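Figure S7 source data.
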Amino acid sequence: MKIGFIGLGNMGGPMAANLAKAGHEVLGFDLAAPMPEGVTAAASAADVAKGAQVVITMLPNGQILRSVAAELIAAMEPGAVLCDCSTVDVDSARAVADQAHAAGLGALDAPVSGGVGGAAGGTLTFMVGGTADAFAKVQPLFEIMGQKAVHCGEAGAGQAAKICNNMILGVTMIATCEAFALADKLGLDRQKMFDVVSTSSGYSWSMNAYCPAPGVGPQSPADNGYKPGFAADLMLKDLRLSQQAAESADADTPMGALATSLYTTFVESEDGKGRDFSAMLPRFVGRHRS
Ligand code: NAD
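Tokens for the predicted nicotinamide-adenine-dinucleotide complex:
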């Protein structure tokens, strides 16, 4: 297949490399990042779009997506599919899909879970919004870049799934960290706390698979000085998207709002920037009830 790829950073670079390694013809464009192995450099986003059956974007935010997509949609050939894998707001995903459909193109919002390790290893999970026809066209590429692709519904449904998932993740990570800090003050051993909670009704991915306490549970960023992993500022980005979506859909999300506020303080006024999102645990330890 002839594939265009825009945004070849930490995630897009290895994803495009995996497509090229699988034998596809991949043309790439990025403002700054180097071309991954096997990917041919193009001079502009529009050059990438010409003749491509699928164009994939992996960009920082919805505003950049909207401007790049306008350029792509004007240059893509009818019947081709624009597949955005960035994490962006639901409204931008729907607006881009509407423009693509009006130009006779297919469109998918297909954000990912799995991080840079999943991108490099081809083990990402894709959550996808768009038509069944567009999903079927891109599915063989999802199979190369990932291990699972869930078709969640119409345009925007992939981004909706991603931000709902990450809102739960932000809330459960904070709850897990504050419970460890409380356990410390109650004199409860952290390993005992893990042994009980990880097999009781308080279990979660944050506790069981990504335990924020160093030396407890499986290997996680806590065992590596809280080097990300999944950075606190990326968690904050996703929580803000959840609150933007809640606002626009008139949904009441008090726990999501509080998690957004705590991660904002952690990243912008404390030492959270550049640290893993599980570094909320040392933040809570030593604090007093306010
Ligand atoms: P990144 O900053 O490493 O890559 C983004 C790339 O886009 C950069 O190379 C940048 O030069 C390029 N770019 C920006 N504007 C451009 C333009 N106008 N034209 C062409 N290229 C342009 O970011 P990343 O970590 O690869 O993340 C990309 C997306 O994936 C984000 O939406 C992020 O939220 C999401 N995501 C990231 C992770 C992760 O662990 N890093 C996990 C899941 C989802």
